[in-house]
Amino acid sequence: MNENKPVSKVLVLEDCPAHVEVIRNFCDENNLIGVKVARSRVASALRLNFDLGAIFLAESYGGSSEESAAIARKIHVARPELPIIMRRQTHDAPSDLPADLDAMICGTYVASDMASLRKVIDEYIFNREYPNALVRGISELTRSVLGSLFSDMGVEVDAPCIVRDRIIFGEVFSLIPLESTWCRGYMMIQAEEEPILDLLNRRETSEGTADFRDLNSLLGELTNMIWGAFKNRYVGDADALSKNQVQVPLLINHKQKYISFGSESPHLCFTYRLKDEQSGRIVKLHQRFAFSLSWSPEDFQEFEQAAEETIGAGELDLF
To answer: Are strands 282-295 and 183-191 parallel, antiparallel or unpaired?
Structure first.
């Protein structure tokens, strides 16, 4: 598997053991991470997984088509951004589904024809091509910046992930626009407040007790350094950018921990783990790219920069 090829996490709502195995194999072959969950745990699974790409739902999940339809309706109300893909029993024609349910289902398939499932995930999840050099470069430059800011900690990164969810991780995030001749959008860094405050208070350089202002300053510095590295490596000639560019409003709902960039396009996401080798404590940072305003990967360019120049600037069953 190409390590720079993004994966995507899907929630698997399937009761039949034989079909679970079929889906497991399908996930392995198609850059998907399947998370199987029991019917009684669907609500908690949605709360715990804020970085999903889709829902795989069996027509008879929960014991009947009526129960499955009820679950689909609840998921659609809670997370309308997530495509729900239904496995039908005998055929993939949606004409006999209730009208409201038909409107919620983005695609159907049968176990004997997994090619139709592949077609749906290509349309709704993997509908953008991310150049390997870009995916690899983002990970490299971000790890370099994190290593410079947290030289006393190890830095690990998960596989890049395609996410359709719009749920914010943690209580604090930074947001900065990204613009080049081949892309326009935003980068977010998301974090939980308490682990970072704890980290700041344990560092010898801390003076007094760290508070949210210290956290804000750190996150701002981190974001600015990553933005500078991205700009040096990928933006190039800023004068070539159009001055008459369309903008769309961002929408943030703090109570629901929801953010929208005005586009239905999936986001490219990275998860970094800062590990204190002595205590074993881990701090997670989530990085999200929403190229919501413009995306032309055929025009992608990489400008070589030296590393120093770049920096200068339990309930779930995981398949």
So the answer is: antiparallel
> Residue 51: which residues within 8 A CB-CB, separation 6 or more?
9, 161, 163, 165, 167, 169, 269, 286
pLDDT at 183 over 50: yes
> Starting from the edge strand earliest in sequence, which strands make up the sheet with 52-58, in order?
105-109, 84-87, 52-58, 8-13, 32-36, 317-318
pTM confidence score: 0.86
- Domain annotation for the chain: domains and CATH numbers: 8-124 (3.40.50.2300), 132-313 (3.40.1550.10)
Which residues lie across from 32 on neighbouring strands? 8
Which pLDDT score, from 0 to 100, does residue 243 have?
58
For 109-136, what is each residue's pLDDT tens digit?
Answer: 998 889 999 999 999 999 999 999 999 9
Sign of the torsion angle spanned by Cα atoms 204, 206, 212, 215: negative
DSSP string of 191-231? E-HHHHHHHHHHSTT--S---HHHHHHHHHHHHHHHHHHHI
Tell how strand 251-253 and strand 258-260 pair up: antiparallel
The residues near 122 (Cβ < 8 Å, ≥ 6 apart) are none
pLDDT tens track for 247-292: 777 888 888 888 999 888 999 999 999 998 777 889 999 999 999 9
b/e 46-72 (16+ beta carbons within 10 angstroms → b) = beebbbbbbbbbbbbbbeebeebbebb
